[in-house]
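lol forgot to send this yesterday, sorry. struct tokens for the thing we talked abt
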């Protein structure tokens, strides 16, 4: 059974979908802990599912490195096989990436390498593209530059705003994430950095 730690910053709707999938007896992975960089609303999903959680507040640390070190120590308590960034809106310091690489994956609301960074949906709209997408990648030291594990195109519709487009992207992200976690757990997919 693959053990998974999930890191979030926000509402955790993708986390919730993974918790739902992983609570099915046939699913080959289990979420063992949920972590956050702030008092994220999504931590309530962990509580509802009886999954332990922790918070390592970014702002309580002098540097990204110091934050990453404590985050790594908290993760190590649970010895996760895989770490899923599901809306964690912080760049991990290289030392933390190196500590767990290539076992950290990330969901992103755009068709990478298009529109990396914190505003993938907003940037796609601003660029006026007619389609964007959703991606699941391996985390490396760059900003959304790691190997792509799964991705799918999603049309931008006339009248879309950031919210409506993001809400249409998220269900695709969830499906891709759950499938990637399942394929890693079964050995169908091997992570490399
Ligand atoms: C998701 O769309 C995720 O891909 C994105 O934040 C959202 C979190 O939603 N992450 C990034 O943009 C990272 N650069 P959620 O909190 O409802 O799961």
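and heres what i got for the seq, position by position
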């Amino acid at each position: 059974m693959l053990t998974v730690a999930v890191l979030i910053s926000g509402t955790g709707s993708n986390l919730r979908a993974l918790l739902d999938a992983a609570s099915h007896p046939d699913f080959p992975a289990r979420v063992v802990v949920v972590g956050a960089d702030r008092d994220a609303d999504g931590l309530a999903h962990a509580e509802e599912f009886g999954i332990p959680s922790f918070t390592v507040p970014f702002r309580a640390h002098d540097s990204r490195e110091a934050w990453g070190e404590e985050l790594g120590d908290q993760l190590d308590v649970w010895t996760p096989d895989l770490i899923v960034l599901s809306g964690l809106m912080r760049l991990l310091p290289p030392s933390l990436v190196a500590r767990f690489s290539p076992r950290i994956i990330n969901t992103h609301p755009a068709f990478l390498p298009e529109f990396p960074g914190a505003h993938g949906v907003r940037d796609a709209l601003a660029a006026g593209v007619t389609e964007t997408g959703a991606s699941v990648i391996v985390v490396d030291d760059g900003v959304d530059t790691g190997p792509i594990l799964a991705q799918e195109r999603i049309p931008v519709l006339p009248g879309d705003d950031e919210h409506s487009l993001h809400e249409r992207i998220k269900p695709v992200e969830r499906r891709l994430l759950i499938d990637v976690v399942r394929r890693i757990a079964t050995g169908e997919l091997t992570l490399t950095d």
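Residues 2-186 form a domain with the Rossmann fold fold (CATH 3.40.50.170). anyway ping me if u want another try
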